[in-house]
Amino acid sequence: MLMMVPENTNSVLVSRGADAVIFDAWGRVAAWRDMLQERGLNLRAIYATHGHPDHISAAPELARDANVDWFLNPADEFLMCDANDFLDMFRLPHIAPDYKRPVPMPIGEVEILPDVKMRVIPSPGHTPGGVMFWFPEYKVLLIGDTLFQESVGRYDLPGGDVKKLFESIHRLYNMNLDDDTTVIHGHGMHTTIGWLKNNNPFFTAH
Question: Which of 85, 101, 111, 183 is most buried, by CB atoms within 10 Å?
Fold first, then answer.
């Protein structure tokens, strides 16, 4: 089952039976704990599309509480140095100085839960270590902040690179995913590959 947790950032929870994995866990850790408990779910891992604090702020504490790994591309861990300044703007709890360190993100096919497989695809540009998560069986793509409904992710933040960003978008376009593939963006409403072809000029520009 795939579902979005509506917030300023789109977090995604994937569950099978009583096991669950969270993508881009941010916000208040207590809210995540309550939701998992209410639904009778056991957290098995956390994955991050990239290292900006609006995508990972809850991950270290939540992973420590559940004694599970959280995964981040090592190229993005430097972004956590200034994370608390950003979190102050949202009046969210700080990431502790002794935060649980992330595990290096695997690249390629990963079985995140029994019989639930995804492909981790490098997608640098918005950040150096950005990745996308592709679920072929469900035709769902978690794209992070690489591309939005009608725009493109920022590349003027630390570690951003406009050339690499458009190379990542070009690589995605050349994957030739079906038009009815659901695309879950890091912010805003989800779309489809077909919708992006018709409405996002950055997706089709080569």
Answer: 183
